[in-house]
Amino acid sequence: MRRFCSTAYTTLKTVTSGGKGTLKTTTTAKADGYYRFLFTGTSTTGPATATGDFVDVR
Fold it and tell me: Is the whole model's pTM more than 0.70, yes or no?
């Protein structure tokens, strides 16, 4: 198995949080690669990007 670190990500899904800021979502990976969450920020909270996790599709 080979793992590659990439700086290019593709948007799979856009979601919004609940009233208390909670977030829950699912998606299906169709190819091996790194996946991550990205929060674009609001007027009161700055943006944040999670570290990517490698997914091995079988």
Answer: no
